[in-house]
Specification:
By secondary structure, the protein is of the alpha/beta class. Helices cover 43% and strands 16% of the residues. The protein is built from 9 helices and 9 strands. It binds ligand NAX. It is an enzyme of class 1 (oxidoreductase).
Length: 304
């Protein structure tokens, strides 16, 4: 039997956490033959609720689940983890300045980066879900210099999957018959996905309007897809979208965490090269890079 993989979920008492941990425990993220130990982190005001989630995980009797650590201690949460899914963060509340929200998230991601750097397993793979996802991932990279930058990513797979879903609905074909859409750049309203741009951009808002809560099951599912493809590889001829550290491909400034089309094999992603970018797309790629540079500057101004 395989050794268990330790998977950290921060913000595990939240909405996405509640949808995500059972998927991980059921093998949706790492495969049906891969035992897992869940590490769940949240903050003290959510400790009781986090413990409730742990009780439910016990009650679900998942055969693959070999242990659960539920804690408000960052070091305990990060110790020995092979995969870290960072869902916890400080949400933007009405009337709050962007800079104040950024500053809260910068301080969270700075301290969690240090804990991961010191205590995670070697070669830990990190996925940042919490918004601003690209920039939180960049801060994490800065403060965990010994974690290779290729191991740090952010989630744009939800936008990618939304685009697949919209195309399948519009063309009346199965979603499994649609592939290779691309999300470029930021998980935000400047992203580009070729077609159905505004529907995909506004899908999050449409879900909030309908559910009075933001997307959770689709976000959790996308996080599983992101890690599964990263660890187990993309099918031949298929690419997916991941927010990764830019190497300057497609003239995207190096040093941003930017969403690119990637293929994966042997636990490593590679940016798909040589796709042709028309003038319309070029403008969008540049606009989303510009937005991310501006966000990066804002984040750095919160450091010190
Ligand atoms: P919730 O508010 O339900 O849950 C967030 C949880 O994080 C809470 O339990 C909170 O106590 C915890 N938390 C706060 N600070 C923490 C810290 N320092 N350490 C550990 N835990 C901490 O939000 P939810 O709906 O689950 O969304 C989570 C995050 O995902 C948000 O930032 C949201 O904006 C982001 N999203 C990102 C998406 C993406 O595609 N990248 C899509 C979905 C989602 O909106």
């Amino acid at each position: 039997a395989k050794d268990p993989v330790r998977v950290l979920v921060t913000g595990a008492a939240g909405q996405i956490g509640y949808a995500l941990v059972p998927m991980i425990a059921r093998g949706v993220m790492l495969g049906p033959d891969q035992p897992v130990i869940l590490h769940m982190l949240d903050i003290p005001p959510a400790a009781e609720s986090l413990n409730g989630v742990k009780m439910e995980l016990v009650d679900a009797a998942f055969p693959l689940l070999k242990g659960v650590v539920a804690t408000t201690d960052v070091v305990e949460a990060c110790t020995g983890v092979n995969i870290a899914v960072m869902v916890g963060g400080f949400p933007r509340k009405e009337g709050m300045e962007r800079k104040d929200v950024m500053s809260k998230n910068v301080s969270i991601y700075k301290s969690q980066a240090s804990a991961l750097e010191k205590h995670a397993a070697a070669n830990c793979k990190v996925l940042v879900v919490a918004n601003p996802a690209n920039t939180n991932a960049l801060i994490l990279k800065e403060y965990a210099p010994s974690i290779p930058e290729k191991n740090i990513s952010c989630l744009t797979r939800l936008d990618h999957n939304r685009a697949l879903g919209q195309i399948s609905e519009r063309l009346k074909v199965q979603v499994s018959d649609v592939k290779n859409v691309i999300i470029w750049g930021n998980h935000s309203s400047t992203q580009l996905n070729g077609e159905f741009i505004s529907t995909v951009q506004q899908r999050g808002a449409a879900i909030i309007k309908a559910r009075k809560l933001s997307s959770a099951l689709s976000a959790a599912s996308a996080a599983c897809d992101h890690i599964r493809d990263w660890v187990l590889g993309t099918p031949q001829g298929t690419f997916v979208s991941m927010g990764v550290y830019s190497d300057g491909s497609y003239n995207v400034p190096a040093g941003l965490i930017y969403s690119f089309p990637v293929t994966t094999a042997n636990g490593e992603w590679k940016i798909v090269q040589g796709l042709s970018i028309d003038e319309f797309s070029r403008k969008k790629l540049d606009a989303t890079a510009e937005e991310l540079s501006e966000e990066k500057n804002l984040a750095y101004s919160c450091l010190s």
